[in-house]
Design goal:
Structural class: alpha/beta
Number of domains: 1
Number of helices: 9
Helix content: 10-25%
Number of strands: 12
CATH class: Alpha Beta
CATH superfamily: Putative cyclase
CATH topology: Glucose Oxidase, domain 1
Length: 249
């Protein structure tokens, strides 16, 4: 019999948005003492908490509603690479393949350990979580495309290395810290033409990803199992918050 494991973060007032995006507004529209019913309003970007990006997010064809259920659920692997990657590291296919056999067409979730810096985590630090996480680059992006994964997921704010995103310009202080650590300039390591390559290479092939995977991901380890991600059926949506679940025997 399978055990359901929740791989989703709690969503609420303190959920951090993607760097540079506004925070959510959550408020009561009706209260019990006034209208005899409770209702609430939420104003939010779609890139908060555990969420699925559609190809449309990077200008491609395909909204959230167009993603078939068969793509959202299926066989896959969860891989613990937390001992192999750290601050500002580049995630490569070998980090995954040396841990477990991965099949073409799988769902892939990789655990970097970075969720400990997320809101409510054991070492909560929003800046570290969003701006200093490990991330993939061209080798990882091309491998994901070649493997034709249904989707990928990870416990970071982005699949891309933070210095290969808009954070490189939004946080020049962190950019300097990175350049001092690696001894190279950001432009040398991540030329502008390859920015957001972990989005731009897989997405045109309809290989999408879930950002900010969390919940009990840190307790799962490395395993093959059934995995699902379930956003609402959002017509015209470029992303959507979702619930990620693993079925583990």
């Amino acid at each position: 019999m399978s055990k359901l494991v929740d791989l989703s973060h709690l969503w609420g007032l303190h959920t951090p948005p993607w760097s540079g995006y506004p925070s959510a507004k959550i408020y009561y529209w009706q209260r019990l003492q006034d209208q005899g019913v409770v209702s609430q309003m939420i104003e939010t970007t779609l890139h908060m908490g555990t969420h699925l990006d559609a190809p449309m997010h990077l200008g491609g064809v395909g909204d959230i509603a167009s993603i078939p259920l068969e793509q959202l659920y299926g066989d896959g692997v969860i891989v613990d690479i937390s001992k192999d990657v750290g601050e500002f590291d580049i995630i490569k296919p070998e980090h995954i393949t040396k841990k477990i056999k991965v099949k073409k067409g799988d769902i892939l979730i990789y655990y970097t350990g970075w969720m400990r810096y997320y809101t409510g985590g054991s070492e909560m630090n929003e800046e570290t979580y969003m701006c200093r996480h490990p991330g993939g680059y061209l080798e990882m992006a091309n491998w994901i495309a070649e493997m034709e994964f249904k989707w990928t997921g990870f416990d970071c704010g982005s699949a891309d290395h933070p210095m290969n995103t808009s954070i490189r310009n939004r946080r020049p202080d962190i950019r300097k810290q990175f350049e001092k650590k690696v001894g190279k300039s950001v432009d040398e390591m991540f030329p502008e033409e390859h920015i957001f390559c972990m989005h731009r290479i897989p997405f045109p092939k309809k290989i999408i990803h879930v950002e900010n995977v969390g919940g009990d991901l840190d307790k799962v380890g490395t395993i093959r199992c059934k995995i699902g991600a379930f956003p609402w059926r959002f017509e015209g949506g470029e992303a959507a918050m979702c619930r990620v679940v693993a079925w583990i025997d």
